Amino acid sequence: MARDTSNTASDRSIQNKIRSLIQLLSHRNGPLRNWRYFPSKLLRRKLRSDSAEMRAYAAEGLGNVGDAHAVVPLIEALSDNNITVRRFAISALGRLRDSRAIDGLIPFLDDDEPDMRCAAVVALGELGLTEGRIANPPMQVIEALVSSVTDSDRSVCSAAVVALGRIGNPQAISALNALEQTTESEWIRRYISEALHQINEQNE
């Protein structure tokens, strides 16, 4: 009798494992229906590597794979002790265009390193390219980018202007006009002119 009970329990365990496997395989984000599943899982594991170089490559790869499961691990990587890992995580989050990353990216606009500020601006610009962004603007993103058009570094300023033009929300017009009047850079004026044209074109 004890043996029969043991066999029944074993059968149930096998059935439960089979059921779990079927659920995993049939899930819309599972390995059969989502080609990103396996590379994303591998790269997320590498993101916890002891090697900073490996973590950086993993962050970059996750941005290229484009799996939504990577968003949270990449947000956590924003606090990595290695600057290269943080920069790659910022860029990857921009490519994923998931609004969960906004709060984690905005503080980098005050980073001491211009490269980090520029990466954050570019990433936020990507996050601002949501459907319906004209009627329902991602205000956090627009306000953050508007604040960056006056950045002391020209590459950061230029990136913010370009991003605002791509997003196309008219709330950026006054800040761009004000910058056009004060900047001494001919290149930035060209970026502003193009951005204003893009905004007007998207709101006709």
How would you describe this protein?
- The chain has two domains: 13-96, Leucine-rich Repeat Variant; 109-204, Leucine-rich Repeat Variant (Alpha Horseshoe).
- By secondary structure, the chain is an all-alpha fold.
- It has helices spanning 2-26, 37-46, 52-65, 71-77, 83-96, 102-105, 114-127, 139-148, 154-167, 173-182, 186-202.
- The chain is elongated, with a radius of gyration of 23 Å.
- Residues 24-28 have low confidence and may be disordered.
- The longest helix has 25 residues, at 2-26.
- It has eleven helices and no strands.
- Helix 7 packs parallel to helix 9 and helix 10 runs antiparallel to helix 11 (186-202).
- The chain starts with a helix and ends with a helix.
In short:
With 204 residues, this protein is mainly alpha-helical.
Please supply descriptive tags for the structure shown above:
Leucine-rich Repeat Variant; 204 residues; 11 helices
Biggest sheet details: none
Could you say which structural class the secondary elements and strand pairing correspond to?
A: mainly alpha
Work out the number of β strands: 0
> What's the architecture of the largest domain, going by CATH?
Alpha Horseshoe
- What's the N-to-C terminus distance? 80 Å
| Basic shape | elongated
Supply Rg: 23 Å
The fourth-level CATH homologous superfamily of the largest domain is Leucine-rich Repeat Variant
Q: Helix count, per DSSP?
A: 11
